[in-house]
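Inputs:
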Amino acid sequence: MFITADSIPVSRAAIIQEILDSPLKINLMELGFLPGKTITLQHSAPLGGPMAFRLEETILALRKTEASLIEVQLL
Amino acid sequence: MPESISPSLVKSPKIAIIGNPNVGKSTIFNQLTGLSQKIGNYPGVTVDKKTGSMNYQGSNYEIIDLPGTYSLYPNSEDEIIAHRVLNQLKEEERPEFVLMVIDSCQLSRGLFLATQLIDLGLNLAIVLNMADIATRKNIAIKTFEIFKALGVPILSTDARGEKGLDQIRELIHQQNFSKKSSFINIEEVVSATLLSEVKEKFKLSNSYQAYQLLRFGEKDKTFSLDDRNWIKAKLSESQLQLDAAQLEETKIRYRKITSIVEKAVVKTPDAKQESGIDKILLHPVFGYLIFGAILLLIFQAIFAWATVPMDLIDGFFASLAGWTSNLLPEGPLSSLITEGIIPGIGGVVIFIPQIAMLFGFLAILEDTGYMSRVVFLMDRWMRPFGLHGKSIVPLVSGVACAIPGVMAARNIGNWKEKIITIMVTPLMSCSARLPVYIILIGLVVPNEVVFGIFNLQAVALLGLYLLGVVGVLFTALLLKNILKTEEKSFLMVELPTYRAPRWLDVLWTMYNKSKTFVFEAGKVILAISVILWVLASYGPPDRMDAIRAESEVKLAQASPDEIPVIENETASLLLENSFIGIMGRAIEPAIRPLGYDWKIGIALITSFAAREVFVSTIATIYSIGADTEDELTIRQKLNQQINPETGEKVYNTATAFSLMVFYAFAMQCMSTLAVVYRETKGWKWPLIQTVYMTALAYFSALLVYQILS
């Protein structure tokens, strides 16, 4: 079952399935959020603040709204 | 000899350095160019143009440091620059060579930009930087595989450890860059006929450049209206979906890159994942506490350390003025120089210690990688007010001085969030308000301890700082609902690996930011100082002459002890009757409801130059003499001022608090205005800001006075 990245539990890894259509799609892809890559949620700021994902060797922070554009499958 | 062309006539080759953010690009730039760096401006934008020259084996090269970007498609003002410099239509204005810096641990992301540069037909060489970190993370890169796939020269370096820099110099010197035909075929995405029409129209040889022109030309003001309309017509005629095309391009590009990276990178699993520090620094509770503690430390340091050089600068300009006035024959020119220009320059220079130190601390936070963590922590709290996580940097700086704060707002990509940040930053209580607060609090708040621990005066001071924060949030909310933008706000920041700061880069930042401030804002500040001087020194001639004549008569009869007293009285009378004094009287009816008399009115006008001028103006008006250092004397003098009509103290509690609130909110800093003008590229925002802040100050002060009196 696919979920979006904003609902990945902390410390869980997931494989990106697709980046959903939106004006930010390209920005996410440019940063390296590409189908097939593994992301892990490292930190989550309180009260629905930004989320920090590990993507390969980097940690990237996104807002929840941007994370919800990434469709993933939990590992 | 035919080859003996003088060196100055030979144009040095231009080399642009480009790369993703946080790849060590600036370190390479600093190492190559050293002390020869210059900061200039790109036309139409506020992004600093960093250039420098490199001398190597008798040859000279011009190096340009471009802002970090992830792709040629720009998202912020910074990134537009990279786009514009590399896309220049005129061949001779484009840099001859491009040095692309890639983080060895982030190969695919770096190659994404690198291959776009290849497609643009640029002469390219690639530097795989941070080789040391890659080794530490067990990442091995077969550079030959990348070279095979791209066909451009590749170097492996560790710029922080200064490894491989000689190779870079040698590469530049040998002009060992190469131009490849293309990496992807853009005609898979955009029709070849359309591209050749563009190429023909703009005399281009490269299809990818033609495509970039189609993508951005319509909104690029550097093109003529005809050209822009032509592009627009072509776009609608061909029904090219730009976003879809870009997406397609991104997919094709990444597909090719992924296959290269699979061959070139050998990663031994079990690479250490260092997020231990972040467990604490990004902790939902401790993260904020630590951030607060760091802020406290910085302000403590700024207030403690900056005062020493600031006092020295103050003293230096005071004695320079004194020395000059002794040197020059008495007259309007001498007084313009000693009372207008020298204090005007001094008023600019005095901010340097604070600006330099604040930028120093910010550079350290930035360079260690902590600043992106702060953005991460604060974004949620800023958003409801129409601000961005990145707004925290300007707001925090604003507590020391709004000038570096406004300057720091430029890396906020979203126009609306940037404008709101610039508009509210001057409402934070900066250090220039402190002397005003201290004098007035000392006057009306008893130095008593309540509830065992709270000193009333400290509580009042804290209250004023909080008032500033309330003003910021209120104004931000207001603007959030007024300003309209179609730009979508987003936050995508990398949280880079923690590292020790590069001290040389920190020093560079301090030096360059101060220099920019002095030269850019300095011009405006100087002009306004001179105007204020004219208004304060001249008045209707008959009145001024009469005062001078009377004073001379008195001086002739006075005993030596009385001379200074009479001189002070005269100075005070002259100020009263100068144009500024007349203006003070003119605005009295307007400020009377706030509890101010015309003397305070004069101080309000002169403090437009800078808030702290309040103290010296008040000192002059109440003729305490030139020595404003001794704040106690001023306080005693103020305390003795009696309103002739009511017989009450002029500086009663209501008036003092009304004044403090006025100073908390009013825009009384021409340096800030000058910087806002520079950052927003026009007088619209500084004017709105002045009107808004003055109105806010006026009505808040009115409210306070009416409640308290």
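The interface with chain A takes residues 70-71, 73, 75, 105-106, 108-109, 112, 137, 139, 243, 246-247, 250-251, 254, 258, 271, 273, 275, 278, 282, 284, 372, 375-377, 379-381, 389, 488, 490-496 of chain B (CB under 8 Å). Flag for discussion at group meeting.
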